Amino acid sequence: MLAFLVAIGYAKSQQPPPTPIERKPTTMSRIDDFIRQQSAASPEFAAAAVQTSLNLETAVAVLQLRTEQNLTRAAFARQIGLSLPTLTRLEAGDIDVSLSLLKQIATATHKQLSIKFT
Q1: Apex CA 56: angle with CA 45 and CA 47, to 5°?
Q2: What pLDDT, in 10s, does the model give residues 56-80?
Q3: Domain housing 48
């Protein structure tokens, strides 16, 4: 929108619009590009990348759930039937998440588990 308004301003003054500023790729875009390239070259890398993404998304969701319930890690670990070290690793994204683990957490917290494909 801002670029559109700037271009209109230049059109009124009969000056050519400015050339677009070249932006350096962000770190995240370079990481995403690397992951895409490596995934295309290696099915093993692609599978590991998908699992890592799932682990990290789950880590964020579990941490948010624990925070919403205002529970310490120890109390939450007892509630969901995990050891404290296991919950700590889960919240750090260091555990390969399974559907059975997600169901266990959902059941213990009386939450509905929702899975979507995007």
Answers
A1: 20
A2: 999 999 999 999 999 999 999 999 9
A3: 37-110
Per-residue three-class SS string for 28-85: HHHHHHHHHHHHHHCHHHHHHHHHHHHHHHHHHHHHHHHHHCCCCHHHHHHHHCCCHH
pTM score: 0.70
Report the amino acid identity of residue 95: I
Q: Is residue 2 part of a domain?
A: no
How is residue 38 written in tokens? 């490596």
* CA–CA distances in Å: residue 91 to residues 19, 78, 107: 46, 15, 18
